[in-house]
Amino acid sequence: MTRDDDRSIGCKAPQKSHPTRKITTTPLSKYPYPIPSREEILGVLRTSETPHAANDIAEALSIKRQEREGFFKRLAAMERDGQIRLDKRGHYQLTHPSNFVAGRVQGHRDGFGFLIRDDGQDDLFLPNGEMQKVMHNDRVLARIVGYDRRGRPEGHIVEVTDRANKRVIGRLVNENGALILVPEDKRIGHDILITQNPKKAKVGQVVSVDLTDFPSRHSQPLGRVAEVIGDIDDPGMEIEIAVRKYGVPHQFSDAALAAAAKLPDEVRPVDIRHRVDLRDVPLVTIDGEDARDFDDAVYCEPVTVGRGQGFRLLVAIADVSHYVRPNEALDVDALDRSTSVYFPRRVIPMLPEKLSNGLCSLNPHVDRCVLVCDMVITARGEIKAYQFYPGVMHSAARLTYTEVAAVLTNTKGPEAAKRADLLPQLQNLYGVFKSLHAARQKRGAIDFDTTETYIVVNSQGKIEQIVPRHRNDAHRLIEECMLAANVCAADFLKRNKHPGLYRVHAGPTEEKLENLRTFLRGVGLTLTGGDKPHASDYAALIAQIRDRPDAQMLQSMVLRSMQQAVYSPDNIGHFGLAYEAYAHFTSPIRRYPDLLTHRAIYAILQGKKYLPDIGHDVSLSTGLTKAARELQKSDDTARGRARNSVAIWEELGLHCSSNERRADEASRDVEAWLKCYFMRDKLGEEYGGMVNGVTSFGIFVQLDSLFIEGLVHVTELGSDYFQYDEIKNELRGERTGIRYRMSDRVRVQVGRVDLDARKIDFRLVRDTPVKPPSPRPSPGAGDAASAGNGAGPRIRPFADNDAPSTRARGGTKKGASSAVGPRGGAAKKRGAASKSASQGRPARKKR
């Protein structure tokens, strides 16, 4: 379910009616050779300091002389449209850049769309007529042609520079004798006409279709069935749909699988040369019961620090970089994925299983290659010194959070007796955790107390129940150890002036900050800190909220005032964690940025510089086409200059951030589908719940016992006319004065469930008082995602990705590095506002 959806739809998606049309096979171009797009031509001129002759541009684009007729006509058309102009010598150069706007199309299920501009300015509204030319996620050039009646800038599409949807997944239906594909992604507003015999595909099945003709203002897209995926009720179908819908790579290349097969099954003597031997150190892994890949192991012992006592903490991380070399097949696939993707009952790993669950995983009682962060930490939680070095370890035990928590809770109990040999080390780890946690509180890092939910599925992959997953001190212990290692990694890059990817988190925007303060005043709360509050001000607010019965909803509002953490070579600090520098180092099995950090650390240890070389066949999710990127490289080579290393790291940061969002969207989509499926047989049942979202078209309610969210449409609130106050975040009846606000208690009845739209609609039940449930024990910090069915943005705290996930996280010797400890501090930076949408009023806010 999406919050920008503005209609309540029944269980069966309505089929669209199309007039009878003649199927044509007209080629996309009247020229016998492919012509570069306008964006590729503009890319040549953007990356050049001087104008170019037409033939020079053709050479840069590798266009043979016999193929240039159409190309020259395109140049003339671009000059006529004002995109480029001729100088006195007859050479082409860019016109004023404000004439055209480049960006990505975002479709809406109701037919209109928006152009998300590359320059970050206000989105352009694209009416239905313009959206007929394009599909969701296409890249285009547009011209601002005016403003609509709501004052929104309106765009006219001049050129489609990149077609994002070469293959589309959906349901095959028969409409008036014609086979069409109804896309699963409702943001694609075109049904696709099937032009060839679909062979084994049957009506009603889920299939993927290769597009043969793209849409235009006067014709719908055409395609042919490429893959029959199965029936909609097949076990795991929701995952098969999601990975194709969001473009998640889910099959490793033959080259990557062959490379993995050639790797040894165990660590060899040659692998441990020049490594610090830690096999006699009782390093242990601590993970969830269902974990299969183990990125990290820890060990702690007491030491004297100056005149006081402290700790020596070793965090050993799987040395993925030893096996995955730059630009080789395994690396290409890992970069393409950028992250592992987690679904209920299934994981799509970043690396083949031989590495992720085998050779790289720190499994118990086997030798493994690791990169170690060796730290000295004071009793006050200050990192006094650290060093990085390659090592070899032999895990002493594979422990679980539940097991360790039981040991720490009762050191004389049965669990402690089973682990008597490890008890002193676990107590040392608990000691360093308490020191680091105290330093975290003093630093002012934000610590959200939110409920993470866990979906329990049956053998068919369908939901049996949704249960809260409570965090304990073992979770927090590992989290603090990983945070410390990540901070040291960032500090190491910074001190050695080596470029890399930092995990950065900007503070709230002025607009969102003011909206939050207005809302807080309405519930008797205050956020201190003036115009630029620090993380410590937010931490103090969370402390005020913690014991309230509406704490979960209030924390959601606080989270919505903040923006998402991203990867960037520009270190602006991490606002939420209150660090001046922070990087991801501890999960290279499942996160590509961590692998890049490992390579940069190794380069520093060896006195070298590491500059990633993005292969010619690699397409990055940066908004820049592969052709334009190759033109930049060619231009740099021709001028005899090195490619700007910051630009390369910036591209990688954009790519990894984009693919992280892609993974989150796919996971949310599957969870939303499962929750809708779970609620299908509960029509008419009543539940108590709390309002956790208010929009102009209704209220979103999260059910108490099920952790599922649905919409009560404004038309279900009564005959009164309700006005939406965005600042106060409430709906208020003009006649009755009835208000619906965040954290209000309501009782609802399940009205409708739509699997296709991932929507659950509730009806408000009147005359039934709802008593607030007894406050549940605080589960601790974790995923602050709404436990809803995907109806609204799943709000995640920065710590969901920046602190180690509970799902799978990820003595000085000659040649080892050392440095004094990093300092923590609150980063102060403004960020981008989060999105909002309204029912029947598709206005978008400035991004």
UniProtKB/TrEMBL annotation:
Q: Which reaction does it catalyse?
A: Exonucleolytic cleavage in the 3'- to 5'-direction to yield nucleoside 5'-phosphates
Primary place of residence? Answer: cytoplasm
Gene name of the encoded protein: rnr
Q: What class of enzyme is it?
A: hydrolase
Q: Where in the cell is it found?
A: Cytoplasm
What does UniProt give as GO cellular component? cytosol
Q: Domain S1 motif, which positions?
A: 684-765
Q: Where is the composition biased (Low complexity)?
A: 779-788
Q: What is this protein called?
A: Ribonuclease R
